[in-house]
């Protein structure tokens, strides 16, 4: 038991969620590729960085770096001014180099590459696998590429999903792939030793790409499957590609060793029929925890968009057989705000509603903190989490539009349940300073990330009430953001960038203003709305929750009634009677004085 619980805890370090909607499944014909970045137990660099396009001289090389979560993510002179060294910073040492191409596209970058200037879009989710590998700087490390650098190279070099898959797959096989969360050789992290990307392009294709370390902790194995147009798919830290039809390259792609390595390891044999990629390569963790950690989110996403399928929420994701489809056709066209709302989800309205139950506390908080203890049991794993650093929906309108208006990065910082998705054109070259400011370890009112993080943390004081205020405010801002994108096709890139950055800056000031309003309104258990006699309320605890606490049993055996003969204490001596008379006389005098004073009364009482 200890083993599988620990593996799942490790897998939670980078447990991100993907939702990908093809153009034929969306309401406006855009593809929508969404991601929640659910960072783990280390501080993260909160900056949204634009890496500029660049021309390169013949014979140039491209440095490849290991992944670093904390600030600064990277220090180098070859990826624009935001990664250039500041005072006291040393250049990041590369793992190695590969030949550079003549021209690289500009793209937006955080932990992974997101979207480039020609609408190519990428979302990520870490998965389990039967193999594990490490970078070349580690013992038993024979590999050059993690998924962060692979995704960035794909955005630098490609405008199509197929190009991205071939580029990443070939580099991984040639130079070796490792997961940034593979642990170390003494304790390999099979629970998160592989990666999945959803990749969408302006030519109307959306693909799912799986990659893991190959033979002898080196090289790579990969496979990719196209999502049928008119479908939506989801990945939640578990492979989803099953049967590979390698005779159909329009819909399936794979590394040359995808079958031979499985045969070599005894994980598949041709007599079994067509290779099932997940069954061959996914790591099976005993027990229900990983199955539900992954599968429940997939069920929730599919059930939200295709409830008519009546999928079983209890199956989880299994290695040995498919429990959920690779993709589904939605019951109705999917709106972009529907995807955004889904990213804010905690299973509300289902049997797994995390705003209900004892663990939600008196005020319905869906937050369930991770911890170091190994204990039988578990929490539901929602899409929106307290440790989500950022999330996004990448909207690709397609080749019929100029790239500047065709691709939009709808970007939200902090936990999705308390964020606003801000539009940035895929081709704009700057973002406001507030999106480039701040460290997770240092509070800063100059940082957009900290504005959302502060409000989300303050909401935990009384989540059911405060988050309702936050959601209402977020809806107002989101509606303004959508309205501001009307007529976008008629704007120049310069005008579009100016408009987007002005809205982002306005939101920055507005969200900090909201933060301070919430501090004034919700403090010390009170709800204070004004200075009038009815301006402060004490709402206390919900009655049903109060009934489950020690309140109804208090004081229990901690208080004893005095004996019946205690009244005789006042008749012990004449002096006692005299003292009592004095006390009573003093009381009457005091009451008279009080009645003579101006009457002034507060309408509430506060316990000291």
TrEMBL record:
A biological-process GO annotation: proteolysis
A Pfam match: Peptidase_C69
InterPro entries assigned: Peptidase_C69
Keywords assigned by UniProt, alphabetized: Membrane, Signal, Transmembrane, Transmembrane helix
Region forming the signal peptide: 1-15
Alphabetized GO MF terms: cysteine-type exopeptidase activity; dipeptidase activity
Spans through the membrane: 576-597
Similarity section: Belongs to the peptidase C69 family. Secernin subfamily.
Record protein name field: Peptidase
């Amino acid at each position: 038991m200890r083993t599988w619980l620990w593996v799942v805890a490790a897998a939670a370090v980078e447990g991100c969620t993907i939702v990908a909607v093809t153009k034929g499944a969306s309401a406006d014909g855009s593809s929508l590729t969404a991601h929640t970045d659910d960072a783990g137990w280390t501080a993260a660099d909160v900056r949204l960085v634009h890496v500029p396009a660049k021309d390169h001289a013949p014979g140039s090389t491209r440095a490849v770096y290991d992944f670093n979560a904390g600030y600064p993510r990277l220090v180098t002179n070859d990826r624009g001014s935001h990664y250039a060294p500041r005072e006291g910073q040393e250049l990041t040492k590369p793992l190695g180099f590969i030949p550079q191409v003549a021209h690289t596209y500009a793209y937006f970058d955080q932990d992974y590459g997101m979207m480039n200037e020609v609408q190519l879009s990428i979302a990520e989710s870490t998965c389990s696998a039967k193999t594990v590998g490490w970078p070349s700087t580690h013992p038993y490390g024979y590999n050059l590429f993690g998924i962060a650098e692979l995704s960035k190279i794909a955005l630098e070099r490609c405008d199509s999903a197929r190009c991205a898959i071939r580029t990443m797959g070939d580099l991984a096989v040639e130079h070796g792939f490792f997961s940034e969360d593979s642990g170390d050789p003494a304790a390999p992290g099979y629970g998160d030793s592989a990666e999945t990307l959803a990749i969408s392009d302006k030519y109307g294709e959306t693909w799912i790409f799986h990659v893991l370390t190959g033979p002898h902790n080196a090289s790579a194995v990969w496979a990719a499957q196209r999502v049928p147009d008119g479908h939506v798919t989801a990945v939640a830290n578990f492979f989803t590609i099953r049967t590979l039809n390698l005779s159909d390259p329009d819909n399936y792609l794979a590394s040359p060793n995808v079958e031979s390595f499985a045969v070599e390891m005894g994980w598949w044999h041709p007599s079994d029929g067509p290779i099932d990629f997940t069954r061959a390569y996914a790591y099976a963790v005993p027990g229900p925890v990983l199955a539900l950690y992954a599968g429940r989110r997939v069920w929730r996403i599919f059930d939200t968009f295709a409830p008519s399928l009546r999928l079983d929420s209890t199956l989880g994701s299994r290695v040995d057989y498919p429990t959920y489809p690779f993709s589904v056709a939605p019951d109705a066209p999917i709106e972009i705000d529907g995807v955004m709302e889904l990213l804010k989800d905690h299973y509300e309205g289902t049997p797994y509603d995390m705003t209900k139950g004892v663990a939600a506390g008196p005020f319905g908080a869906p937050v369930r903190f991770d911890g170091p203890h190994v204990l039988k049991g578990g929490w539901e794993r929602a899409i929106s989490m307290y440790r989500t650093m950022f999330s996004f929906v990448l909207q690709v309108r397609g080749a019929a539009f100029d790239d500047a208006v065709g691709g939009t990065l709808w970007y939200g910082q902090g936990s999705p349940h308390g964020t606003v998705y801000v539009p940035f054109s895929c081709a704009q070259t700057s973002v406001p300073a507030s999106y480039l400011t701040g460290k997770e370890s240092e509070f800063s009112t100059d940082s957009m990330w900290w504005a959302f993080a502060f409000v989300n943390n303050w909401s935990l004081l009384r989540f059911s009430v405060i988050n309702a205020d936050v959601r209402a405010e977020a809806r107002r801002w989101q509606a303004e953001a959508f309205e501001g994108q009307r007529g976008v096709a008629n704007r120049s890139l310069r005008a579009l960038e100016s408009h987007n950055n002005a809205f982002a800056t306005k939101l920055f000031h507005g969200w900090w203003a909201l933060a301070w309003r919430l501090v004034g309104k919700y403090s010390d258990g009170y709800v204070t709305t004004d200075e009038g006699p009815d301006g402060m309320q004490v709402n206390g605890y919900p009655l049903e929750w109060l009934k489950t606490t020690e309140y109804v049993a208090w004081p229990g055996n901690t208080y004893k009634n005095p004996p019946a003969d205690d009244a005789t204490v006042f008749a012990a001596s004449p002096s006692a009677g005299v003292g009592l008379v004095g006390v009573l006389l003093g009381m009457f005098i005091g009451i008279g004085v009080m009645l003579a004073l101006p009457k002034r009364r507060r309408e509430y009482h506060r316990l000291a």
